[in-house]
UniProtKB/TrEMBL annotation:
Belongs to the NipSnap family. This is Nipsnap homolog 1. It comes from Neovison vison. InterPro entries: Dimeric_a/b-barrel, NIPSNAP, NipSnap_domain. One of its GO terms (biological process) is sensory perception of pain. The lineage of its organism: Eukaryota, Metazoa, Chordata, Craniata, Vertebrata. Residues 183-280 form the NIPSNAP domain. Keywords: Autophagy, Mitochondrion, Transit peptide. GO terms for cellular component: mitochondrial matrix. Gene3D superfamilies: 3.30.70.100. SUPFAM superfamilies: Dimeric alpha+beta barrel (SSF54909).
Length: 282
């Protein structure tokens, strides 16, 4: 049986053959953000209580000094079209990232290596919150090249979904980093009403996971599926991931964080991802 091939239209070829930003353009673009086991049984006798709150999660958990909004996209690609999809994406998305008329920037772009196969994940930042998002969306409606890109991309996809996210105040700001790295996106779907407790525990626990600079970013959903948390980690390889995660268990206090947060979770999953060539996170 002959292998199925992804059909590329003439319009897609024009997009692929057009000029692309070089590595120097990325370097010149100033659009990145710079910057005890023996007592565990005793702790289990007590219920961890949370003070009642009346404020929104976005007010209590997100960063006050910034108004960044993030969008994460999950694209499930036809297997025979993944290479063509990556090429098309790498030809068009950097232009939006570098265009100062668009208040959006690429944070990271990946293909899933372990987890859901033939999948692309994109993370965008909108500097200025919802007004910046709407400004960008309105401008894209009249961007002929982007509309052509979306039309060609749609022929390569099986499904897609997205979420609007805010970043936890106690996590690092996602910043570009040199590679090569692999990235792990750990997604936690929490029980409704437990987001504040999750944040309180991780605000104390994040220090146990920063010695190797593996913590990239932490986010919680605002639009789309709610009570969803995404933690993004970077490792040199799968072996360093194993060693780094095991080292956390040797630190007094990490087991307590796990003990108190696991009951808050109704579902979790992990993706190991490889960055695309255009990704600021390499």
């Amino acid at each position: 049986m002959a292998p199925r091939l992804c059909s590329i239209s003439a319009a897609a070829r024009r997009l692929l053959e057009g000029p692309r930003p070089g590595a120097g353009d990325f370097a010149a673009a100033a659009r990145f953000y710079s910057k005890d086991n023996e007592s565990s049984w005793f702790r289990s006798l007590f219920v961890h209580k949370v003070d009642p709150r009346k404020d929104a999660h976005s007010t209590l958990l997100s960063k006050k000094e910034t108004s960044n909004l993030y969008k994460i996209q999950f694209h499930n690609v036809k297997p025979e079209c993944l290479d063509a999809y990556n090429s098309l994406t790498e030809a068009v998305l950097p232009k939006l990232h570098l265009d100062e008329d668009y208040p959006c920037s690429l944070v990271g772009n990946w293909n899933t290596w372990y987890g859901e196969q033939d999948q692309a994940v994109h993370l965008w930042r909108f500097s200025g919150g919802y007004p910046a998002l709407m400004d960008c969306m309105n401008k894209l409606k009249s961007n002929k090249e982007y509309l052509e890109f979306r039309k060609e991309r749609s022929q390569m996809l099986l499904s897609r979904r997205n979420q609007m996210l805010l970043e936890f105040s106690f996590w690092n700001e996602p910043q570009p980093r040199a590679g090569p790295n692999i990235y792990e996106l750990r997604t936690y779907k929490l029980k409704p009403g437990t987001m504040i407790e999750w944040g309180n525990n991780w605000a104390r626990a994040i220090k146990y996971r920063q010695e190797n600079q593996e913590a990239v970013g932490g986010f919680f959903s605002q639009i789309g599926e709610l009570y969803v948390v995404h933690h993004l980690w970077a490792y040199k390889d799968l072996q360093s991931r194993e060693e780094t995660r095991n080292a956390a268990w040797r630190k007094r206090g990490w087991d307590e964080n796990v003990y108190y947060t696991v009951p808050l979770v109704r579902h979790m999953e992990s993706r190991i991802m490889i960055p695309l060539k255009i990704s600021p996170l390499q």
